[in-house]
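Protein Entry — a single chain follows
Next Lines — sequence and tokenised fold
***
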Amino acid sequence: MKFIDNEIPHEPQRFQRIYIYFAACKLGFRAGCRKIVRVDGCWLKDTMFRTQLLSVVGMDGNNNIFHVAYAIVEKESKDTGLDILKLDIDAPTWLNDKDHSEWSMSHFSSDAKCDTLLNNLSEVFNGIILDARDKPIMTLLEKLRYIRMARMLANREKIAAVEYVPRKSNYWSYKILGATVTDNWAVDLQNKSCSCRKWSLTGIPCKHVIAAIWAKKDNILDYVHDCYKVETYRRIYENSIFPMNGPQLWPKTSKVPPLPPKIVVESGGKNIEVVVMTKEHGLKQLEEDEIDAIVA
């Protein structure tokens, strides 16, 4: 946190900026988030008018935003740690002066494990904190802290919700124990079934089946239905429909062309058969308005 001297002598200092980087966010980001961050700023409102909230947002392996750090500053400047490009006629020159790895996907480093070029992550975060942007400084900071705390807890509970304890019955069968007595499931790996029926319906192992597969130390892909496999996909499309000549090159025949099927039109609860003749049989084919006239 930084303060500046008051313009009035002997008065308390004024707040200038604050930078917040929670240890939980630092450790979480280092533990396994993708090695890329988005830096963006948004203007605050009302009592915080003409100040900005700068945010650093990352991405986890589930494509969720991971808020790394943020700062409340007096304005955009290099001194506050953010130099945002203003797109104008000089933008092409600005880009050409930068290394291609900084803005061209074709030159991105493979270390980041992310091919996203847009700044949507920062925009999503700015939308999440929309209701907090018009609050006084202390209320704003508390709301931001609560948003991050609640999000960390929600994602942590998501992981806990898919943790099941497998109990082996025989070589193929397992009982999967969840957090409550109503969250128990029977899995048969040999017959590829789970009592939740999701595996049977989709052909993709559900979370209960995955728990059993891990306990058996098998490969999950061995239990996925063949219709999802690359080899099956190749077999589906390995045959070709060959080209053929147009009607002008078709062989001629002396057989009489068959008649087209009858058209049955419903009118007043009755079915009326309308015979449609082809030109080959000397009659003009009936148009829709002619059929309507017959029915009427």
The first helix runs from residue 23 to 32.
